[in-house]
Amino acid sequence: DKEVRAIFLRLFAQLFQGYRSCLQLIRIHAEPVIHFHKAAFLGQRGLIENDFLTKVLNGMAFAGFVSERGPPFRTCDLFDELVAFEVERIKAEEGNPPKMIKHVRELAEQLLKNENPNPHIAFQKVPRPTEGSHLRVHILPFPRINEGRVQELLQEGLARSQGAPTATRGDKKCVVPAGPPVGMFI
């Protein structure tokens, strides 16, 4: 799963390399608006005639991508690092499948570490059913749920959560690295 996600991460990093140099921050409104200059992006990469990339850039998903990743001061992640710092490495690996596979595996490990920062916490594994368990007819039906008890448990949980401090991620905002300009990806 993580390796497939790493491959897509690399694909989108290659596809959008240099996108930050085509972002324009418009400050005429109370809230700044971020605009992506599509013509400059496609023109500098020599992809004006590319229908696929043009459709991707015109899609709602890319508009959401720009609004989410456009601000110059936000929490950075693995994608930002790939787009800004791994450009040459990705380009060099295009003709060398073993190096590309090694990089994909490294990215997959980083994705796993990001999702599971405490590997020492073991996940409970569900045991496999025994052989012939499907033939058993003595299995009792699922009991009816006591609605009063459910409400009590919900109230207890709400009371505990109101007194507990709110959990926040420790992500620190930083200036997003711009990476190389678009013109070098022709």
TrEMBL record:
Molecular functions (GO terms): guanyl-nucleotide exchange factor activity
Per the record, the GO terms for biological process are:
regulation of Rab protein signal transduction
InterPro entries named among the record's database cross-references: dDENN_dom, DENN_Domain_GEFs, Tripartite_DENN
The UniProt entry's GO CC annotations, sorted and at most eight, read: cytoplasmic vesicle
Residue ranges constituting the UDENN domain according to the UniProt record: 1-76
Q: What is this protein called?
A: MTMRD protein
Q: Which organism is it from?
A: Hippolais icterina
Top-level taxonomy = Eukaryota, Metazoa, Chordata, Craniata, Vertebrata
